[in-house]
Amino acid sequence: MDRRSFLRTCAVGSAAAAVTASGLLTIASLQGEAARRGGGGPVPRPFSLRAREGTIRTVDGRTLYAQGFADDAGSMRIPGPVLWAREGEWVVITLHNEAPQEHGIAIDGVVATSPVPPGGEAVAAFLAPRAGTYVYHDPARGPLNRALGMYGALVVMPAMEPDRPWAGGPTFDRQYLQVVSELDERWNIAAGSGTSVDTGSYRPNYFFLNGRGFPDCQVDPDVHIQGNVGETILIRWANAGLVPHSMHTHGYHFRIVQRDGRPDVRFLEKDNVPVYPGRTMDVLVTFDQPGSYPIHDHILMANTGNGVYPNGIMGMFEVV
Ligand SMILES: [Cu+2]
User: pLDDT tens, 252-306?
Assistant: First the structure.
C-alpha cells in the first residue's frame, strides 16, 4: 500500500493506523494510550477539514481575499469549524488541501502536520488533550496562512461532565466560544493578487470576534450573549490572531478558571485579562444583575474596523 492510499484508508476511519507528523501510530497503541489515561475507545472522533481560498467580508462592506478551513458540507469560513472532542478519546483530523499553495494543521503542543502540497491530504491523529480550549491553525508559510484566516478552535470537554470545564471543576449553565483575531489588509490584498507579502511588517486594521467586527458579529449567539440573573456561564476566549488581545467585561467580573487547558484553581476575579496569540483563557461569569453590557478588547485599536470605532472586537451581554 503506498502512502497516499494508506492515508486515504485512514481517512475513512476503518483503517488499522493513522499517521502524524511524528510518525506512525497504530490503533492498538492509541487504544492502549487512551486506556492508560482512563478514556478513549475503539472509535476515533473523525473530522474532515478542507483548506480553501475565499473571501472575508469586513464590517465596512469590503470583500478581501482570505483563506480558511471548510468542513465537508460548507464553504470556507473564518474561523474554521469548531472541533468538539472529549478528554481521552482520540481525534483524527483529515486535512484536504484544495488550495493552490501549501497548507497544514497544528495544535501547539499537541500535533502538527508537515506542509501539504496542493491537492494533497494529511491526517493528524492524537489523543484529545486535557479538557479545555485550544487554537488550531495552519503553520505552513510562516505566519501568512494563519493571518489570512486559517485557524479555529478545538474544545475538549471532560469525558463525563458536560457542565464543567474539567472533571470535578466548577459548574456552569451554558458555554460560549469567542475566537478573537485580526488581519492586515495589505497581506490579504498582496496574497490575493499573487504578489509577495512582506511578513516582516504586520499592522492589523480589522479585528474580529468569531470572524466579524462589531456590529456584524452581534448576529452570533456566542457573541451576543443572552441570559438570566442567577445563571453562571463559561466563556472560552481563544486568540487565533498574531497579536495580543485583552478581554474586558462591563457589568460583571469574571473568574479565570482555565488557561490553555490547564485548570487555574485560584479562580482570580478580574474584569480584564490578556490573551496572547495562540493561547486561550476560559472564564466563568455569574449574572448578578440585569442589564446590557459590552464585552470588548481593552486594547483600543482592536475596537476598530479600518480605523472606525467601535467596529472591532466587541460583544454584548443581555441579561434579564
Ligand atoms: Cu470598556
Answer: 999 999 999 999 999 999 999 999 999 999 999 999 999 999 999 999 999 999 9
Range of the domain at 9: 3-157
- The domain tally of the chain equals 2
Centre of ligand 1 from the C-alpha of residue 293, in Å: 9
pLDDT given at position 179: 98
183 and 150 in a common domain: no
Is residue 151 located within the same domain as residue 278? Answer: no
What are phi and psi for residue 233, nearest 5 degrees? -120, 160
* Nearest Cα to Cα of residue 211 among 231, 234, 191, 181: 181
CA of residue 255 to ligand 1 center, whole Å:
18
Low-confidence ranges of the chain (pLDDT < 70): 1-43
User: 157, 182, 197: which is the final residue of a domain?
Assistant: 157
Residue 262 lies in a domain: yes
What's the pLDDT score for residue 44?
Answer: 83
**Residue type present at position 96:** H
Distance (angstroms) between ligand 1 centre and the Cα of 240 equals 22
Distance CA 9, CA 98 (A): 19
Q: Are residues 148 and 116 in the same domain?
A: yes
Residue 194 alpha carbon to ligand 1 centre in Å: 39
Q: What pLDDT is attached to residue 31? A: 55
Q: Which residue has the cell 444583575?
A: 289
CATH code of 251's domain: 2.60.40.420
CA atoms of 258 and 234, how far apart (whole Å): 10
Q: 40 vs 47, 94, 128, 164, CA distance in Å?
A: 16, 19, 9, 19
What does the alpha-carbon distance between residue 26 and residue 12 come to, in Å, rounded to a whole number?
Answer: 15
**pLDDT value at residue 217:** 97
pLDDT at 28: 52
